[in-house]
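Continuing the series of single-chain predictions for the mutant panel. This is the parent chain; the variants come on the following pages.
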Amino acid sequence: MKQPISHKSTLGYFRWAFVITAVGLMLGALLGWQSTGTISGMATIFFICTVLAVLEISLSFDNAIVNANKLKEMTPAWQHRFLTWGIIIAVFGMRIVFPLAIVAIAARIGPIDAIILAARQPAEYARIMNEAHLPIAAFGGTFLLMVGLSYFFDPEKDVHWIVSVEKLMSRGATVKGIEIAFVLALILTFASLIEGQESTTFVYSAIYGLLTFLVVEVIGALLDASQKAMAEAARGGLGAFIYLEVLDASFSFDGVIGAFALTQNLFIIAIGLGIGAMYVRSMTIMLVENGTLTHYRYLEHGAFYAILILAIIMYVQTLFHIPEVVTGLGGAALIGVSLWSSIRHNKRKEARAKAQAKAQAEVHSPARERLEA
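Parent structure:
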């Protein structure tokens, strides 16, 4: 679905993100004052909220691009639903409800008890979250691997950035289920490197991640097919919405777990990551309305390579810790290089067009002179 080019300024897209930033940082400062009663304590929590927001933004550049790639196929009504209800689910569901659900399941306590635990015993809450990191990383990493590989293992994909690699994957897509076989082989490889019961946990969690991706794909195809049968305009509706929500959840795993390295307070984490999520939403809207993905042809490629790198990092983190700054900067660097490549491509294309126009003008010039004579 072709999107109209917007004339809104860049700052206009981030208006609500700025508002949420101001409100969130004020809430963080207030929470710091109430919990410590000191200016230094208030400033510390204010700073932590800021760092968490930056962390979330750096980890989610690729998320915004992938969201925009899917949203451009959706109707305006479903785009609006995702950018309103979807962001509520992303901020409150993934940054608050999801960590509470993990603790409630892991500790075998009720959701209310999990909230009380987060408020009164943040250290114990953080310990339970960290212990749950392996299955989360296996599940989220597998889902993201399938997302990234499905983009490159596409027989109809004809635009390639790293040509030799992407052409090979595009040709390999003719082998049915090749990406699933690749992921299963990777799961078994990493499981062999993990000792004891954790190896079994990794395999089960990774298989659940694979099944979730396949189920979401099937449900999305069925829903969108039935909607299309009812009305062509409904294409890219509920199925795409579900896909984007699960995708956002997978992106959020790393940020939520990594946030505990800075603070053990669930509410500070929710404020910081919630601010970051609003910027991701603003970036998504800007990319869709300005047709940025069409103009910068390799930007999507950079985002999906970043997804694959993030997925591998999540797998590696089941063996040893990798700082979140490495994850964030790595993804941002890949997207930056893909943007630079896109700009170079556009300049070469413009130069060729000018050269052709000049050549045509030179060919027609003698003819004009003869006619004038």
